Amino acid sequence: MQLRYLKTFIAVATTLNFTRAAERVHLAQSSVTEQIQALEADLGAMLLDRSNRQLRLTAAGQQLLEYAQALLDLADEARAAVADAAKLPRGRLTIGGLETLCATRLSPLLAHFAQAHPSIELQLKASGSGELRNALRSAAMDVCFAFSTLDEGEELQSEIIGSERLVIIVPPGHRLARATEVGPGDIAKEPFLVTEQGCVYRHMFDTAFSAQRPRIAAEVASLAAIRSLVEAGMGCALLPEVALAGSNSAVHRLTWHGDMQTVPVMMVWRHRRVQPPALKLFLDEARASFATLTPADARRPRAAQSR
């Protein structure tokens, strides 16, 4: 069995879709089909039931899936042990994160790491929390960054490596536009723009306003759209301040002094008995990088204020 075929098989087995599997392993769909057929020929058993429109694992395929990831993990551990003994941090790291973190915190981190370790190939992917979780568990990603935990389980490890300050943004000319900070009482009657249920940014809003929630004017699909609608005067919004980095929007940002003033930044990676040297280096670099970016007052919760 070739290890790359096992990686392709895991992608097919977890997506049950050749097209999505091909995207995950960066191969043409025809190549994915060829590798699965070669694996079936090598093992002498059908791994996938293609008789119906819905692709399904056979009993043999289900049995292989229980071993495939363990075999790949063992191969990774062997490479890591050899590389560690030879003191040669090489390989490829796939790093993921929420779009906001990829565009702000992760870009300079990767640039610095690439310069310090040119022998390590890096790939950065922006996804939602659900996609990040699935990519970690399927070994399509080595480490990711998000604003909340990703249901760790036994196969994942996580660590809070920083925090981001929350702010309220209001339209130009708003009655609070000249203020610098607000508390729950200041915006209790204001309409708010939020993302959809299930989104990490919606969870921030629901948590920050758990006691007294303002009126929701609309659910919006993206932070960029929320910023535009706030600028157009449709309402206010609660966001991590980092989401406004580099934005030319005319919205006014106000420091938020509610019960929840910051959100943690989580670093999550797959648990291994032997950590690959390249990943170990990156985790340490990320810890150092985010430590310098943590808001100065993140460790000093302040009482909510009202005007």
From TrEMBL:
Segments forming domain HTH lysR-type: 1-58
Keywords recorded for this protein, A-Z: DNA-binding, Transcription, Transcription regulation
Pfam family, one: LysR_substrate
Domain of life (superkingdom): Bacteria
Entry's Gene Ontology molecular function annotations: DNA-binding transcription factor activity; transcription cis-regulatory region binding
Family: Belongs to the LysR transcriptional regulatory family.
Protein name: LysR family transcriptional regulator
